Amino acid sequence: MSSDLIVCGAGPAGRALAHRALAQGQSVTVIDPRPEFRWTATYAAWADELPEWVPSHTFAATVERPAVWTTRRIELDREYVVFDTAALQDSLDPTGATIITDRVVDIVPPSRSGSHALDMPSVRLASGSMLPGGRVIDARGIPRSPGLAEQTAYGVVIDRAQWAEPETLFMDWRSDNGADSVEPRSFLYAVPLSDNTILLEETCLAGRPALDTQLLRDRLAHRLRSRGITLTGTERIERVRFPLEGGAPRPGSFGAAGALTHPATGYSVAAALHTADTVAAGDGIWPSSARAVYRLRQAGLQALLSLPPQDLPLFFDAFFVLSPARQRAYLSARDDLPGTAAAMSALFAALPWRIRRGLVTSIMRP
């Protein structure tokens, strides 16, 4: 018997989609090679991005005004949420779904001809079986490729008592990580995970290729030593590496596979949570305005990749002094074309002429 919905992938996007489809009374099948795998990454979001159904007990920390260091300290007027990863995973309860431990090798569109004709979409599994469903959604993420820009990071979890700075740092571009000024830049991301622990993560925002995590490890150790923190080697480690591009804005894909990753931040979980109900109901999330915003964000990624290392702090200095409304439009509003265009135009106007000229050249280049 076929399900109303087949979800390929049980990561945050796939599990959120299955959870919301079950809440709508649909029959759901979830296929993943390791459906019981416990997530280890740290996820965060702007609080105003999250739908009401996300329970507050999944929040490890809520920060009213995170800070950014560019060429100066800037306080952001927007509430920021860091998830308790285990609690978030458990809250996206797939109870009631059929869980299949297997790998999807192909998604087959409906066909009324041929020896294996089906009038509904189906998936071909590594085990050899074919499984039809009312709808099939690919939420398996994006495979890595040398041609794709990536985000990388290396982080450690330490006792908060060791961290002299009392604030959450969304981005800290200060140059105390030992890197030469002409080398690709990385920044410090510092967020609380509980009342007693904090994640300190050296991050390469975007690179093609991105900085290796071993190099980021060395930079993090140097940065922390300069701030009076010596690592013992026993700290819990978090390594990050994922593509910032490669998804496709189409109805049959969701999450990173469905182009919900923001190319300027790498964030996709909040967008998946926000749109899961809509996609579960079978409605579209890619009107023409959203597709236009997607293209503008891709141009923004190209601009970031083109910047000389020394200009990145200046770029974000100009961005984070935009009004909160314009920051929100660019970072979170998937289908607000006027707001996104206005934010990008204001940012461009605020940049020094030298940087503007380089950005125009990079965007016009094929």
Any overview of this molecule?
The chain is an alpha+beta fold. It folds into 3 domains: 3-38 and 92-142 and 246-280, 3-Layer(bba) Sandwich (FAD/NAD(P)-binding domain); 150-243; 288-364, no CATH class. It is 30% helix and 25% strand. It has 9 helices and 16 strands. The strands form 3 sheets. It has a 7-stranded mixed beta sheet, sandwiched between helices. The chain has a 6-stranded mixed beta sheet with strand order 8-2-1-11-10-9, with helices on one face. A 3-stranded antiparallel beta sheet has the order 3-7-4. Strand 5 (67-69) and strand 6 (73-75) form a beta hairpin. Helix 1 packs parallel to helix 4 (269-280), helix 5 (288-306) runs parallel beside helix 8 (337-350) and helix 5 (288-306) packs across helix 9. The longest helix is centred in the last third of the chain and has 19 residues, at 288-306. The chain starts with a strand and ends with a helix.
Topology of helices and strands:
Elements: E1 3-8, H1 12-23, E2 28-32, E3 44-46, E4 59-63, E5 67-69, E6 73-75, E7 80-83, H2 85-91, E8 98-101, E9 104-108, E10 122-125, E11 130-138, E12 150-159, E13 169-172, E14 187-192, E15 197-207, H3 213-226, E16 236-243, H4 269-280, H5 288-306, H6 312-320, H7 324-332, H8 337-350, H9 353-364
Parallel strand pairs: 1-2, 1-11, 2-8, 5-13
Antiparallel strand pairs: 3-7, 4-7, 5-6, 9-10, 10-11, 12-15, 12-16, 13-14, 14-15
Helix pairs in contact: 1-4, 5-8, 5-9, 7-8
